[in-house]
Structures are given as structure tokens and as C-alpha cells.
Structure prediction request, 106 residues.
Amino acid sequence: MGSVVYTQPDGTVRELEAEAGQSVMQLATKNGVRGILAQCGGTLSCATCHVYVDETDLADCGPLADFEDDMLDTTAADRLDCSRLSCQVKVGEGQTIRVTIPPTQL
Ligand code: FES
Prediction:
């Protein structure tokens, strides 16, 4: 098991337990976390699953693939150095990944 801590733009925090290998997006949509739309269902073609990853957890998120990098240029909210698409971030065993949801996805 691992966990993800989701912080909403208004500061509301929600922590959920994740199965190892589950994506930050899958966990959010399964549990009704607001602000992660994931319109394409994780096929890396919508960028509506954009999150800002806590700087201390970036190394746990795996490498940024070229196609994800390209898609991050299309996000509705500003792209930051800590931006990732949550469908591409998998939670590892024992990991806690902290993310902040941007103010808009569209
Ligand atoms: S869910 Fe569409 S790019 Fe992540």
C-alpha cells in the first residue's frame, strides 16, 4: 500500500490509501476527488488530470516521458516545474505522494 495526499486549490486536504501500481488519477476518480477530470481515461490525450507534485515527492513519480512532457504544454492552468499528469504517476509500495490540484483543468 501507499497513499496520496490531495490538496485542493482552497486548501482542503484529503489523504487516500493506494494500491501499489495504482495511478494518482485512478485513485482520485475512483474516490470522487474534485478537480481531476481525466477526460481521456488515462490514455494521455487530454491533460485534464494535471497536478502539481510536492517537490519532495517528485523523485518518486518516475521519469517524465516525452509525450507527457508535450501534453503538459497544453494544460489549462500554468505549467510549473512540478507539474505532472496524474494518470502517468504510479504510487509505489510504501510511498506517499503529495499533490496539489490546479484551479482549473479546462
Ligand atoms: S487522464 Fe487524460 S492525460 Fe491523464
Q: What stands out?
A: Residues 4 and 16 are 5 Å apart (CA to CA). The longest helix spans residues 24-30. Residues 25, 38-40, 42, 44-49, 71, 85, 87 surround FE2/S2 (inorganic) cluster (CB under 6 Å).
